[in-house]
Amino acid sequence: MYEGNPRHCWTMAGKQGRQWRSMCKGLVLGTFLTSCMILLYCLSTPQIHLSLPEVPVPYSCAHRPSQLHPKPTTNSSHQTHGQTCAPKVDIMFMKTHKTASSTFLNILFRFGEKHRLKFAFPDSRNDFFYPSLFERSQVKDYRPGMCFNIICNHMRFNAPEVAKLLPVDTSYITILRDPAELFESSFHYFGRLVPFTWKIPGDDKLTEFLHDPHYYFDPEGFNSFYLKNLLFFDFGQDNTLELDDPRVEEGIKFIIDRFQLVMLVEYFEESLILLKDALCWEMDDLLFFKLNARKGSTVSKLTPELRARALKWNAIDWKLYQHFNQTFWKKVDAYGRQRMAEDVAELRRRNEEMTSICIEGGRAVEAGSIQETAMQPWQPIGEKSIMGYNLKKNVDKAHRKLCRKMLMPELQYLTELGVNLWITKLWGHVRDIINW
Ligand SMILES: *[C@@H]1O[C@H](CO)[C@@H](O)[C@H](O)[C@H]1NC(C)=O
Ligand SMILES: *[C@@H]1O[C@H](CO)[C@@H](O)[C@H](O)[C@H]1NC(C)=O
């Protein structure tokens, strides 16, 4: 009867209200995603079968011996010993989901441009075939023996493959977020991409889900990882383990051993100061505007009860977070609480200064009020809840370029850095057509 005729489907949608409409969208989406997966699979198959020769990675991919660009010893620096150190330029940033990582990517992009670093980017899209495990062959223009400085797009972490791509001296860094907040954000942002959520009744699907997650959750379901221990999953681990499974402890140990710095969203500025200290960067490198922020009305405030449920449901991520929250504050103690407070205050002051220089009206606005398409952020499925910025009209020449880059959303910046995003863009056009 339906014969896959979308017009028939839409007519019915008109008659039977929103539920049909959302089911139709689901079908269109499902079909589209499946086609995409098949297409991508076909495109990537030859690469997978090509066994790459093993060429040892270099020790470092810094352009010049590190002594040649020492950190200037200015008086504004709080470094009392006046030591010089060279900024670390070989960086693996494990970009976790819904963790302010777009804001951090903007910082990395600017740092990379400043030092003319080579990024290992994905090809044709903005992630490394997530949720498949990372493989070197997914890197754009990859050939064994090449030198890359930075990798920072979404991936499902796969340590051996990353180690075969990046130099030995690479600094591994990542960022975590309170798992209850992360779960709420992920549910908001990705919920509609997870088919088992379509059958959850009511308007407040999150609350309903958390009241009986075992009933609704389908571990085998398409995209189900977005809704359980997403952090642990991003690190390449099994997100469905029971908390007392020994592999949970092993997985956390593995992350501890691998990553030199684990930043926390809740203490973003403090994290950046620790980063500056660990990688020998400058305060100028840390300037940022908060990108991809959600409109206030769509940010749900979890009640204490829901928060407790969310943490129980994401128990592995909660354990992971608590561990790194402890080590974080040990690092802050080692850095010096007072010194940290002063540096954070300086960073905030500098960011505010940049805000008044660059941003029209001094704050983020809703998508509809953003004048330039170049400044439009990518929106979640089904709504326009992500805010963006308008660049001030007459920024002085000295700041114009910096302002533009600081405000540029991730996809636009990737394009500017030479990444061809045709799959991502095609997906955007399809969404425009079906008005999702
Ligand atoms: C640092 O400050 C001292 C005096 O406070 C000044 O003599 C010196 O030139 C300054 N150094 C730099 C690199 O600005
Ligand atoms: C993280 O650690 C700090 C300092 O010990 C503590 O105040 C805070 O409550 C912890 N956060 C979480 C979410 O456990």
TrEMBL record:
Stated name of the protein: Galactose-3-O-sulfotransferase 1a
Q: List locations, semicolon-separated.
A: Golgi apparatus membrane
What is any one GO biological process for this UniProt entry?
Answer: galactosylceramide biosynthetic process
State the signal peptide span. none
**Does the record carry Repressor as a key word?**
no
* Keywords, alphabetical: Glycoprotein, Golgi apparatus, Membrane, Signal-anchor, Transferase, Transmembrane, Transmembrane helix
Topology versus the membrane, per the UniProt entry? Single-pass type II membrane protein
* SUPFAM superfamilies hit by this protein: P-loop containing nucleoside triphosphate hydrolases (SSF52540)
Q: Which PANTHER family match?
A: GALACTOSE-3-O-SULFOTRANSFERASE, GALACTOSYLCERAMIDE SULFOTRANSFERASE
Q: Main localization of the protein?
A: Golgi
Which segments cross the bilayer? 22-41
